[in-house]
Design goal:
Layout: E1 11-12, E2 21-22, E3 33-36, E4 39-42, E5 46-50, E6 77-79, E7 96-102, E8 105-116, E9 119-125, E10 137-140, E11 143-152, E12 155-161, H1 163-167, H2 171-185, E13 190-194, E14 201-205, E15 212-213, E16 216-217, H3 226-237, E17 243-247, E18 252-254, H4 259-263, E19 276-279, E20 282-284, E21 318-323, E22 329-334, E23 340-343, H5 347-358, E24 365-372, H6 385-393, E25 398-401, E26 404-405, E27 407-408, E28 415-419, E29 429-431, E30 435-445, H7 446-451, E31 460-461, E32 470-473
Parallel strand pairs: 5-32, 7-31, 17-21
Antiparallel strand pairs: 1-2, 3-4, 5-6, 7-8, 8-30, 9-12, 9-24, 10-11, 10-13, 11-12, 13-14, 14-15, 15-16, 17-18, 18-20, 19-20, 21-22, 22-23, 24-28, 25-26, 25-30, 27-28, 29-30
Helix pairs in contact: 3-5
Bound molecules: iron/sulfur cluster (SF4).
Length: 494
């Protein structure tokens, strides 16, 4: 029998250039929008920061609780762009343009989920372990998604994503790059491979968690370079040993030659270091980078020593060697031929290694989203986009991402960087163009909004914002408050 009932029509989602046609009960290609009985809906809840009155754990109102239907809870509600949706093309006003009075000042926040084709993440990995050489390619699922960049103090750095990987390579490279960025930004663990061939390193990165390098979970971030460690703890070794070497991939320190040792009247010991001497008691390149002592490739610390100077060294001379995290250490005494012989480490020296370890911070991965909002999404804020850019530079407009303080880079455009751990969970989405979807909010005085050509007709008081699906979160651990007067130049009297 023929079924004459009309086939429900698909509706078109116009929230991004993909322009999906979505059947009833289905969602579009990005799973962000769905057709609910002929109505296009944003699937994820709108996230509201409810001042200091709510728990930090996000929650949804549950059936049977005493939720009163008031989505604006808390004394300082802030409508974030998480779950707010996107307007496309960009000349359409942003999904929410919300006003509220804050400490006697009429403020407005323009809220949108930006589609970022120019975006990526910077990853800081607190470890001395060798994770690859600077400029090594970083792969996810076999596709190049970024590279190793300059090491920082006690940390390795990755630059992942960016428009070249999202759009400049194969379709597969773009898709996998986007997927890796999305998972990193949403705080998931991502397995990466760094470098090529026999020096490839496997790395598991997860925001806020310890990195896993070649299957080993890192514990401690080094206390400092080898030279700094000598400077910090020289007094602890005084009287317990004749010389100390702090093994470090970058700057290995030697107590008897170091200025710290000189000032403590520690005499020369005839020690001979391999590697390149920089300044007294500071040596570069004593070994190759690796996953051994102090981020070098050595497991036997004696391999970085040459023969002791027979004119200076004495039989029985005591030597302590330790890594920059205090996790590896060994004690030696010179025999009659001035060859170091390993002995049981005396208690005061064990205690000094424990003190180094105690002064190390836990090793964690930090993931910072970086994206360029200087492009077309500005048109959802004002019909004269450059005025928004100027307003940001003049500190009349404050930029936040999911309510978290965003660092705005100097120079042209609105290039922002934000710690994903400061943002609500599940803040990020994607569209298959491919591009990442990230929340962004612009807050400013209503008068300044009018001056920059804002969509005044679209302003709605915060009390009139209504959505069926809302989650409330507490303010983030930094206590970021996009509405705080100190964010704005006008509050500074300039
Ligand atoms: S990919 Fe998502 S946002 Fe883009 S048109 Fe499809 S459903 Fe809408």
């Amino acid at each position: 029998m023929m079924n004459d009932s009309p086939k429900p029509e698909k509706i078109r989602c116009d929230a991004c250039p993909v322009l999906c046609y979505i059947a009833d009960g289905k969602s579009g290609a990005c799973d962000r929008y769905a057709n609910h009985g002929g109505t296009l809906v944003r699937v994820d809840p709108l996230t509201i920061i409810a001042g200091g009155e709510q728990a930090l754990v996000p929650f949804l109102p549950e059936a049977g609780d005493d939720w009163d239907g008031d989505i604006i809870k808390g004394s300082r509600p802030f409508i974030t762009a998480v779950g707010a949706g996107t307007t496309y093309p960009d000349y359409k006003p942003a999904p929410f343009i919300v006003s509220q009075e804050v400490a006697g000042v009429d403020m407005v926040t323009v809220v949108t989920e930006g589609i970022f084709s120019y975006c990526g993440v910077k990853v800081k990995i607190d470890t001395d372990r060798h994770i690859g050489d600077e400029r090594d390619i970083v792969y996810a699922e076999g596709e190049p998604i970024g590279h190793v960049m300059t090491s920082e103090y006690g940390s390795k750095m990755l630059s992942l994503g960016g428009v070249e990987h999202l759009t400049g390579g194969s379709k597969k490279e773009g898709r996998i790059t986007c997927d890796a960025l999305l998972r990193l930004c949403n705080r998931e663990a991502v397995t990466l491979h760094v470098g090529d061939g026999d020096h490839q390193v496997e790395l598991i990165v997860e925001a806020g968690k310890a990195p896993v390098v070649d299957g080993i979970t890192e514990k401690l971030m080094r206390v400092g370079c080898g030279s700094a460690t000598i400077g910090m703890f020289a007094k602890k070794w005084l009287g317990h040993v004749d010389d100390v070497v702090v093994v470090d991939d970058h700057i290995t320190g030697v107590l008897s030659e170091h200025e710290a040792g000189k000032q403590l009247d520690i005499p020369p010991t005839g020690i001979k270091m391999l590697g390149r001497r920089s300044t007294p008691g500071r040596y570069f390149q004593v070994a190759n980078p690796g996953t051994g002592w102090g981020g070098t490739d050595i497991e036997d610390p004696l391999t970085i020593l040459g023969p002791f100077n027979a004119k200076v060294a004495k039989s029985g001379g005591r030597l302590f060697m330790v890594s920059t995290t205090g996790e590896q250490y060994a004690y030696f005494e010179l025999d009659a031929d001035l060859v170091p012989q390993k002995k049981e480490t005396p208690e005061p020296l064990k205690a000094s290694a424990a003190l180094i370890a105690e002064n190390c911070e836990p090793s964690v991965c930090s993931v910072l989203f970086m994206g360029g909002a200087g492009g077309s999404l500005r048109a959802g804020v004002t019909d004269n986009p450059v005025r928004l850019t100027r307003s940001v530079k003049e500190q009349l407009t404050h930029v936040s991402c999911g309510g978290a303080q965003a660092y705005v880079w100097p120079g042209g455009g609105i290039t922002v960087m934000v710690n994903v751990l400061d943002m609500p969970t599940q803040s990020f989405g994607y569209v298959p163009t491919p591009a990442l979807v990230a929340p962004i909010e612009f807050s400013l005085r209503v008068s300044d909004y009018e001056a920059l050509g804002g969509y005044m007709d679209h302003i709605r008081p915060v009390s009139q914002i209504s959505r069926e699906d809302v989650r409330h979160v507490g303010e983030n651990r930094q206590g970021d408050n996009p509405m705080a007067a100190e964010n704005y130049r006008w509050a500074k009297g300039s």
